[in-house]
Amino acid sequence: MVPRARTKPTPTTRNDGVMASNYAGGRIPPHNDDAERAVLGAIMLSANAFSEVTEVLRKEDFYKPGHLVLFDAILSFHQEHASQTIDLITISQFLKSKELLDLCGGMSYVASLTSDVPTTANAVYYANIVRAYSLRRTLLELSGKMQADVFDESQEIANVLDETERKMSELQSSSGTFTDKYQESSILVNKTVDRLMERAKHGNKDGVKSGFQQLDEMTGGFQPSEFIVIGARPSVGKTAFAISMAIDMAIHRKIPTGFFSAEMTSMAIMERILSAEARVDSKRIRSAILRSQDMVNIIDAASRIYEGKLYIQDTPNIKLLDLRSQARRMKRERDIKILFIDYIGLINPEANPNVPRHEQVAEISRSLKALSRELQIPIVALSQVSRDAEGKEPNLANLRDSGSVEQDADVVILLHRDRLADMNAKDGKGTQDSTSQVINGFPVQETKVILAKQRNGETGIITMGFQNQLVRFVELERFSGS
Fold first, then answer.
1. For 299-322, what is the mean pLDDT?
2. pTM to 2 decimals?
3. What is the mean pLDDT of residues 428-444?
4. Which of 26, 62, 86, 95 has the fewest CB atoms within 10 Å around its CB?
5. 71 Cβ contact partners less than 8 Å away, ≥ 6 residues apart
6. Are 278 and 294 in contact (CB under 8 A)?
7. Nearest-angstrom CA–CA distance, 435 and 152
8. Closest CA to 364 of 318, 397, 395, 328
9. Nearest 5 degrees, angle CA 143-CA 148-CA 153?
10. Is the dihedral of CA 111, 117, 123, 127 positive or negative?
11. What pLDDT is recorded for position 400?
12. Is the pLDDT of residue 264 over 70?
């Protein structure tokens, strides 16, 4: 007997109390009664079937209320009497003791389940059929709720879209088994050693490399689902640091990279990228006083950027809901591997104006962390540090507006540079105190890159170089002797 979908209406009530005939516009929701019966019968005939089926199904996956009650009772029996065998007699007695037998259809119906099983060997196959129909019903319920929400004008349409998108993402993630299967150490250690050997042979490909060797050696690259925060006082170079990494990822290594800017326009960002990539003074680009060689360098750089994989969103005062929606869209359409956000303080959480600012920032931080896990990519968010850090090295406590940012972040990178160095270098020439090197004809201001937190690794300080005229960061050790 092959389980088939039931098409005739049944006079039963669904477990949520809605009559089947009134559900989905009068149509019977997708379900397969034969598969549900076969699963339950197999469990009462085979101990192996129970362990295999419970890796696939939850009680809510059963459509018929009696089947749901029976499956739930089987789970309860196993929990209370783990040493006893699950079979027709033990389950029937358990149902009687809990006064559940009638809810399951009576003794004759429960007994008939074991006689209807073609073979217990196909228990997982039957369970997957039940699970597939359950997902169809969930999708049907979600579409019905979305329709009701659309007609409910008291709800903001942006909230309806975001909630629908989130639930669709959850549904897609749950399309397989609902729990992660345990793994034996003997199998896990072999997989781990194979992974380590692969890394030793080809390098660590798990994370997205920042493009700065010392930083990558400390972090192993930015890992999927990580929330990375880059903090600094204004004008120290947060955006320049992020753009420098994005250039290496998207343009030099062709890694699909998303960049959200709530502070600068996409054209302004592109001017910075052209300045850094073409090595043309950003002031000359802004003022349009370009030499012939500058134009040659810009055109060459433009061709490289054209072939890159950088996607920029420049919505000012972007709403948190819109940011999440656009990030999902970038992931879906461009398969971005990393996302930069400039910066946390300019994201609009659309919270009640009476809600304290630190709570608003906490909501943004939690949401970005959750988004990184949902999309399974690293998200790098820029953040200002408080005035308390002016003139001295910042620390985790200086992250502005909320301690939640520090708590949610997997990695925190803080930038620090002597303000006197900035003042001395405004003319582009620098002084002996402010400029330790000249690289590619442009002076460099030493900047501390402080790895203040790393959930899964070491912390420490790296000294890098900031080229103010090119608005870019460079590695000093790489150019030692230049």
1. 86
2. 0.62
3. 61
4. 26
5. 39, 40, 43, 57, 59, 62
6. yes
7. 62
8. 318
9. 135
10. negative
11. 64
12. yes
Tell me which long-range contacts 423-432 makes (C-beta under 8 A, separation of at least 24). 425/468, 426/468, 428/281, 428/283, 428/468, 428/469
Ordered by where they begin, the domains of the chain are 20-173 (1.10.860.10), 208-479 (3.40.50.300)
What pLDDT, on a 0 to 100 scale, did the predictor assign at position 242? 92
What's the distance, CA 228 to chain centroid? Answer: 12
Whether the per-residue pLDDT at 344 is higher than 90: the answer is no
Local structure of 290: helix, strand or coil? coil
* Average pLDDT of the residues in 164-189: 64
Q: Which DSSP category does 399 fall into?
A: B
Taking only the tens place, the pLDDT of each residue in 67-105 is 998 998 888 888 777 678 888 888 888 888 888 888 888
Longest CA–CA span in the chain (Å) reads 94
Q: Which two tokens stand for residue 24?
A: 């989905």
User: Cα–Cα distances in Å, from 125 out to 38, 57, 113, 136, 384?
Assistant: 10, 11, 17, 17, 54
User: Cα–Cα distance between 145 and 143 in angstroms, integer?
Assistant: 5
User: Residue 430 pLDDT more than 60?
Assistant: no
Please give the pLDDT value at position 3. 52
Q: Which amino acid is at 258?
A: G
- Specify the pLDDT at position 13: 42
CA gap 290, 280 in Å, rounded: 9
The token pair at 455 is 């959930």
Residue 475 tokens read as: 């590695």
How far is it, in rounded angstroms, from Cα 179 to Cα 182?
A: 9
Residue with tokens 């400390």, as numbered in its chain = 218
**Strands 411-416, 227-232: pairing kind:** parallel
- Cis upstream peptide for 343 (omega within 30°): yes
d(CA 302, CA 251): 10
What would the two tokens of residue 289 be?
A: 């006083």
Place of tokens 């994201």: 347
